[in-house]
Sequence to fold (315 residues):
Amino acid sequence: MSETIAFLGNLDAEEEADFLAALAASLPEETIRPFRLLSAQEREAARIAIVANPDPAEVAQLPNLAWIHSLWAGVERLVRDLGASGVPIVRLIDPELARTMAEAVLAWTYYLQRDMPAYRRQQEAGTWRQLAYRPPGETTIGILGLGTLGSAAAERLVGAGFRVAAWSRSPKAAPPGVTGFSGPEGLAGLLASSDVAVCLLPLTEETRGLLDAGRLSTMKPGAALINFGRGPIVATDALLAALDGGRLSHAVLDVFEVEPLPAESPLWRHPEVTVLPHISGPTTPASSAAIVAGNLRAYRATGRIPQAVDVARGY
Ligand code: NAP
Fold:
């Protein structure tokens, strides 16, 4: 019988019950229990923690962890709060999440390519005016971040006939039909040529504030921005100025500096901003539990910890 696995997170009671039920169904041979229900001996003995935005003070009460499995794909909070502990952090890499995110990128790209923000405004004004159609083959989508999610989105966009470019930190082979960029000069090229820039970057020391006034001013005039990565990658004031000045035509934002987006944020009311409540790539209990189960069983069988986040790199 293996030791009890600790479950820690700031989920509401219903979400926690859903994740625990999915984990129990995927891992019937394991005992997985919320941190608050663990005895002192179980906390001492715990080797693995499954987490969803855990309280670092609670994680610190598990002194013998061998590794931590996050239920989320983005790990900036874990790296910040727990990176110094040296306990390996394994993040969620879920093909179902990548598929859902790619679908969202395609949906909101179509929203922009088919001029839906303009038609919404025209309807509000009672205006009947047909705008020129711009085919996907004449529309360049630039993806910032060519990892699990960026690659899936790029393939989906290529399949829909868009011209696709993508930017990564290190030079790498881009998926078929995708023009790859890397490094600082690569970002300049991508921003200058994209009709729609899609941010699928992780939040790290390097990417925080990356899309600031200077970089937004190098975007193709009239381009649009989709941010599905993390809020602090885009400087909100600079984005609002770029929209007000007409440099950018529209922004679709799913992630924000503070979530939920505060009621007083000007983003809520800006006519050229679409606000989404962090729904572009939801983690579902069933699909994430299946991924966690695969990683845990491999660990039990081999003793090898799954590939962990590079804390120094931040993702
Ligand atoms: P990933 O597989 O780790 O890929 C990250 C990509 O970003 C890689 O291509 C990496 O370059 C690139 N990158 C990182 N730092 C960079 C830098 N300084 N300059 C240029 N490129 C850089 O991550 P993922 O699974 O695709 O997820 C990406 C992010 O999406 C997550 O971190 C999370 O914040 C966000 N997310 C959002 C939602 C949502 O619902 N809105 C859902 C899930 C995830 P290399 O290829 O060179 O390493």
In short: Residues 276 and 296 are 33 Å apart (CA to CA). The chain has eleven helices and twelve strands.
